[in-house]
Amino acid sequence: MGEVDPAFIQDTQHRPELAVIEAEGIPLIDLSSANASNHVSQIADACKNWGFFQVINHGVPSESRRKIEDAARKFFALPLEEKRKVSRDEVNPLGYFDTEHTKNVRDWKEVFDFVVPTPAFIPASPDPDDKELKELTNQWPQYPPELREVCEEYAREMGKLAFKLLGLISLSLGLPENRFNILFEESTNFIRLNHYPPCPIPHLALGVGRHKDSRALTILAQDDVGGLEVKRKTNGEWVRVKPTPDAFIINVGDIIQVWSNDTYESVEHRVTVNSERERFSIPVFFSPGHHVWVKPLEELTKGEKPKYRAYNWGKFFAARRRMYPMASEGRQANPVKHFVLVHGSCHGAWSWYKIVALLKSSGHKVTALDLAASGINPKQVGDLRSISWYFQPLRDFVESLPADERVVLVGHSLGGLAISQAMEKFPEKVSVAVFVTASMPGPTLNISTLNQESLRRQGPLLDSQFTYDNGPNNPPTTFSFGPLFLSLNVYQLSPTEDLALGTVLMRPVRLFIEEDMSNELMLSKKYASVKRVFIISEEDKLGKRDFQLWMIEKNPPDAVKEIKGSDHMVMISKPKELWVHLQAIAEKYS
For the domain that residue 358 is a member of, what is the CATH number? Predict the structure, then answer.
């Protein structure tokens, strides 16, 4: 997996516990004919109380399982360049992938996906009026040569087991044994080969983050290393599913929860990683045909209100792929975009360090710039005679881009002025501009009016400092944030170590005269031709929410997003939320 990337790090509340609770209570059901009379009641209890159970004597030949496990080990042992010859992409969601995300955090694993049966079809788009179908095509590597054959053999055995289990689940709900069968005609099922390499940070990362399965039924084969954890319904504790030789682990997904009108619930689960041993697993995900409308079954809602609206499974799946291109069960990186990040006053490119890591982990190209006399830019604040000089590093960079390249401009705070000038001068090189709680002038909102309104709403600056290089009777020439002001109004929801970092790395910002700013920020139809998105920071105490809304009203962007629980330093207090928004915006407007 290479170096440990910050994108793997789980938020504190979602990190795995050091003390493991093994789930002795997860039912182990013997499917042999000798116990047939108990199967239905055992499955009913398991689905109600856990949402998970294990099965033994299931009828799947152990040789079939051994062969696919051996082939999976051979495939994942290949050099990365060989595995990537069958990588999935934005066109084909099947094959190899190693940068999957769950809940916007990168999973510590690599996968290989294929569909069964073939040919398999899904809607080409989530548009209800679009009847076009898209065929899914499996990609098979040259090595190991037996992979395709053993996978297809295993898939046939899994199909038999799945219909046996669906029949028992149907009976446990008081329905005919074959009630679900017609819903799985032309089904779109897929099988995943998972490989979890040894992880040097098992206390910080997860093989798969917490999630529920969106499909109907999952059948999992795991090796003896283990790592699957289930969230206990009674108290919310994470409990480890102890590996049982030759057993399969079964869980009901969201679709069965809907069909049963919450009689059975899809349960949250995750996968921990091991610092010493690699782990392999093979989940098989079963879902109905793409034409099926998923809704509570009429037989189970007599006398009670359906808890879910009907939705078309195929269109739902297509919508997931549109939101998260290349996605199957997890969220993954979008096709490569070039993000140009511009900092706010007194800050520098360093302030984007979390976003840079996240975007790069998703495969994007990222340029974080220092404006003049900021960060590590060599100019001194006293050297700047015009705001044009302050913006020059961004202007020079955008101008130097190849003629056919368009970037995503992202400006924070005062950086909104810098990207506004770039939009005016180089509209053909900007696919979309994102204002992150940033100053946003425009043809209908000049900089003079914006500055006056900002000053009118400004609160006490506490220990912040001005300098008066032209004498005490003239306007101030520079401004610096004070440590107390930073802690109370700029970084109040950010980690303390980031506040400390910011306090050390701050540089004064030049205060430019209004006439100079107005001359450099005369915005026209060129600026207006660029798509704009404004991201509101809910708890910003520097550019307060009401001021952000005022700018939006006076200079309406194409879209508005909001990040809850974020301070002025959105990229530091809520980096993952901002990362998700930036990728979605880039995808929409590219």
Answer: 3.40.50.1820
- Residue 219: strand, helix, or coil: strand
Whole-angstrom Cα Rg for the chain: 28
Total number of domains constituting the chain: 2
Work out the angle at residue 159's Cα, subtended by the Cα atoms of residues 158 and 162, and round it to the nearest 5 degrees: 85
- Contact criterion met (CB below 8 Å) for 75 and 143: yes
Q: Are residues 189 and 241 in the same domain?
A: yes
What CATH number did the domain enclosing 218 receive? Answer: 2.60.120.330
Number of H helices and E strands in the chain, helices first, is: 17, 28
Alpha helices in 145-272, H assignment, sequence order: 147-172, 254-259
Q: Is residue 504 part of a domain?
A: no
Burial of 556 (0-12, 13-18, 19+ CB in 10 A): middle
Does 313 lie in the same domain as 185?
yes
- 184, 288 Cβ separation under 8 angstroms: yes
Pairing, β 338-342 against β 407-412: parallel
The active-site residue out of 413, 431, 537, 573 is 413
57-107 pLDDT per residue, tens:
999 999 999 999 999 999 999 999 999 999 987 778 899 999 888 887 899
Q: What is the DSSP letter of 318?
A: H
581 as an active site residue: the answer is no
**481 within 8 A of 464, measured Cβ to Cβ:** yes
Q: Where are the alpha helices (DSSP H) in 473-513?
A: 483-485, 496-505
Nearest Cα residue to 347 out of 176, 141, 502: 502
Mean pLDDT of 416-440: 98
Does some domain include residue 287? Answer: yes
Same domain, 279 and 370: no
Q: What is the pTM assigned to this prediction?
A: 0.59
First to last CA, the chain: 30
Q: Among the options 58, 101, 195, 568, which is catalytic?
A: 568
Residue 444 CB coordination number (10 Å): 11
Domain boundaries, position 187:
6-323
Instruction: For residues 517 and 522, give the distance between their C-alpha atoms in angstroms, rounded to a whole number.
Output: 9
Respond yes or no: is residue 343 known to be catalytic: no
Distance (Å, whole) CA 221 – CA 230 = 15
Q: Which whole-number Å values give the CA distances from 587 to 92, 127, 219, 321, 584, in the listed order?
A: 17, 18, 33, 12, 5
At residue 186, the pLDDT reads 85
Amino acid identity, residue 479? F
Q: Which of 540, 566, 567, 573 is catalytic?
A: 540
Claim to verify: residue 170 and residue 260 sit in the same structural domain: yes
Report H helices in 274-414. 313-323, 353-361, 387-400
Q: What are the pLDDT digits (tens) for 97-154?
A: 998 888 878 999 999 999 988 888 888 887 888 889 988 899 999 999 999 999 999 9
Contact call for residues 487 and 385 (beta carbons, < 8 A): no
Q: Would residue 413 show up in a list of annotated catalytic residues for this protein?
A: yes
The full length of the chain comes to 590
